[in-house]
Amino acid sequence: MKPKANPRLSNKALAFVLAGGRGSRLKELTDNRAKPAVYFGGKTRIVDFALSNALNSGMRKMAIATQYKAHSLIRHCQRGWNFLRAERNEFLDILPASQRMDEAKWYVGTADAVTQNIDIIDSYGVEYIVILAGDHIYKMDYEVMLQQHVDTKADVTIGCLTVPRMEATALGVMHVNDQMQITDFLEKPADPPAIPGDPDHALGSMGIYIFDWQFLRTLLLEDMHDDNSSHDFGHDIIPHIVKNGKAMAHRFQDSCIMSGLETEPYWRDVGTVDAFWQANIDLTLFTPPLDLYDNEWPIWTYAESVPPAKFIHNEDGRRGTAVSSMVSGNCIISGSEVTESLLFTGVRTHSYASLNRVVALPHVDVGRKAELRNCVIDRGVQIPEGMVIGIDSEQDRENGFRVTDKGVVLVTKAMIDAYLARS
């Protein structure tokens, strides 16, 4: 009898996405949605990247733990990820914090979010669990990391970014030996340890962890009864394994997906308004640092059924144009000028308006003769006729908009309503 081929490790693994965080550094963008549900790239949400990486890596068992203002995130997953078929042992289970174990507490830490769902994870019958953050932008083949985890017989394998050493002071940093075994885990060190043989770089944690499920299960149950624990992977579980077990580092460049257009591994934490704006605007470049047009590694999402974008009016001073921009479906550029901007689904721009380096979320309406520069416009905002934003920071602040240290202006519906009420 011909021996049976070994199945892909991803078939035996569960992708567990931690998507409960508010993301307070995104300010008013997360007033009504969790950070993983924030829009990105014209039609996707941030969480789609972790889920798409799992799917493209061959993983068909996924779970997502939600907590803070989860409705839009849950609705998005139900609409955009309902193609997985339970009869083929495929699923995306949504696991809201529901006070299942203690009526007085919700998820109190990243590890606790897994602990409270141990019985559900047991029912999946998986050998490995891949813990993922739901709020980063990157493309990565988790199968490569899984293979390293198994080959090295690690207790935990941690995904790591290679960063300039002194830039690692804001990260959790891995101190490793020549075999890439982690000997120490340092949270935001003033003097980050260098990679052996590479004195100018350090390894920063990506918040991606792979465990054998039975090993982690035992550890979580012990942690649950520890009153001194914060029940967090970064603060409690990982340091415990580094001290008492075998923790291995996995370099992101060994498993990142690059289509040929990307010149270096791409990973972004779009956790501030400035970073969010910049990462979206970067997509409009002639050769963007992230290739969203790679059909070999698609980013799956909820694909709305909408008409194509339309550009209307063709006379001097009133011509519908978009240059060096990304314009999504159901947008109408009516006699206005759009430059180096990213417009999400359903945006309307009216005659004589101009937009330069603008990120406009779905269903924004820009009034006639409005002038917008260097700003993020939240979903559903109606910009009044003739309004100027992004030219004078002091005026923008007086109008009630949020202006970042780098001069990017965030505009939400509540801000516009308050402005109109004062006018």
Automatic annotation (TrEMBL):
Which CDD domains does UniProt cross-reference here? ADP_Glucose_PP, LbH_G1P_AT_C
Q: Which domain of life is it from?
A: Bacteria
Q: Which family does it belong to?
A: Belongs to the bacterial/plant glucose-1-phosphate adenylyltransferase family.
Respond yes or no to whether keyword Transferase is given for this record. Answer: yes
Q: What is this protein called?
A: Glucose-1-phosphate adenylyltransferase
* Catalytic activity of the protein: alpha-D-glucose 1-phosphate + ATP + H(+) = ADP-alpha-D-glucose + diphosphate
Tell me which residues bind alpha-D-glucose 1-phosphate: 107, 172, 187-188, 205
InterPro entries linked: ADP-Glc_PPase, ADP_Glu_pyroP_CS, GlgC_bac, GlmU/GlgC-like_hexapep, NTP_transferase_dom, Nucleotide-diphossugar_trans, Trimer_LpxA-like_sf
Job description of the protein = Involved in the biosynthesis of ADP-glucose, a building block required for the elongation reactions to produce glycogen. Catalyzes the reaction between ATP and alpha-D-glucose 1-phosphate (G1P) to produce pyrophosphate and ADP-Glc.
Its pathway? Glycan biosynthesis; glycogen biosynthesis
Q: Which UniProt keywords apply?
A: ATP-binding, Carbohydrate metabolism, Glycogen biosynthesis, Glycogen metabolism, Nucleotide-binding, Nucleotidyltransferase, Transferase
